[in-house]
């Protein structure tokens, strides 16, 4: 995450706080609040894509303590109108890399999870 743009701020804050910031929906809401997201300001699809990219890059690095709980992150975002197709498109940024099959599986599972939450399945 070399980019200093605003879309990187949430991903950077979450990376610095580690996977524990996704242990519950309330902990995700807290990090969103700390980064200025509330009822009047929602994270953009680019913000969310950067978080997803950060999660993929940090997934499975040595222990279960490093596992990001996407379901809690996605559930916390339910209060915002997020276009998940745009999130997937926004993954096309210069530093985004999937280094193994596990990373691709994480992206696919995250997208399926969000679509199933959105569709009420």
Keywords, please?
single chain, 121 residues, mainly alpha, 6 helices, 0% strand, globular
Short description:
With 121 residues, the protein is mainly alpha-helical. The chain contains 6 helices and no strands.
Helix content: 40-55%
Structural class by sheet pairing and helices: mainly alpha
Q: If you compute it from the alpha carbons, what radius of gyration comes out, rounded to the nearest whole angstrom?
A: 13 Å
Low-pLDDT parts are: none
What does this structure look like?
This protein has 121 residues and is an all-alpha fold. It has one domain (16-119). The protein has six helices and no strands. Helix 2 packs across helix 4 and helix 3 packs across helix 5 (84-90). The model has no long low-confidence stretch (mean pLDDT 84).
Summarize the SSE layout with pairings.
Layout: H1 9-17, H2 25-34, H3 45-58, H4 70-76, H5 84-90, H6 101-119
């Amino acid at each position: 995450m070399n980019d200093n743009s605003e879309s990187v701020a949430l991903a950077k804050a979450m990376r610095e706080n580690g996977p524990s910031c996704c242990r519950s929906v309330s902990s995700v809401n807290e990090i969103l609040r700390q980064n200025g997201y509330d009822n009047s300001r929602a994270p953009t699809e680019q913000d969310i894509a950067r978080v997803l990219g950060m999660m993929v890059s940090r997934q499975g690095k040595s222990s279960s303590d490093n596992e990001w709980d996407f379901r809690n992150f996605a559930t916390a975002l339910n209060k915002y109108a997020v276009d998940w197709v745009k999130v997937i498109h926004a993954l096309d940024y210069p530093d985004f890399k999937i280094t193994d099959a596990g990373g691709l599986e994480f992206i696919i599972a995250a997208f399926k999870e969000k679509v199933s939450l959105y569709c009420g399945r």
